[in-house]
Specification:
It is a single chain. This protein has 7 helices and no strands. It has helices at residues 2-21, 26-53, 56-59, 65-69, 74-78, 80-98, 106-117. It is elongated, with a radius of gyration of 15 Å.
């Protein structure tokens, strides 16, 4: 879906821009491009969860739009609980890809939890 690709590309760019500026290797850039894609996907998963079960007052936007439009989402394919599990698997995969950076990756790990569990 176009929105997912757009979100993934945006997060990818944010992850690779510092590596490009630091003239890192193509291999490292591709690794962080993939991490960014996963973060974008995680963001989209959270968005789908908010649209499915979120409230207008908390989310600050109309919810339930995907179902009304009959839009294919991970939730329509996997169900709500399995979509949450998928989000957690994404977090695990991202954390595995950044663990070699030790304490320097702590902020990103905390941000991943925030992204999945956000309400708006």
């Amino acid at each position: 879906e176009m929105e997912t690709k757009k979100t993934g590309k945006l997060f990818s760019f944010c992850c690779v821009a510092p590596l490009i500026l630091k003239k890192k290797s193509k291999k490292q850039i591709i690794k962080f491009e993939n991490i960014g894609e996963d973060i974008g996907l995680l963001f989209q998963v959270a968005d789908d969860l908010i649209d499915n079960k979120g409230s207008l007052l908390v989310a600050g936007k109309k919810t339930g739009k995907d179902k009304i439009k009959g839009k294919a989402t991970l939730i329509s394919l996997l169900g709500h609980k399995n979509t949450i599990k998928y989000g957690n698997k994404l977090i695990l995969r991202i954390n595995n890809n950044i663990k070699k950076y030790g304490s320097r990756s702590k902020n990103l790990s905390e941000t991943l939890e925030y992204i999945l569990n956000r309400k708006k």
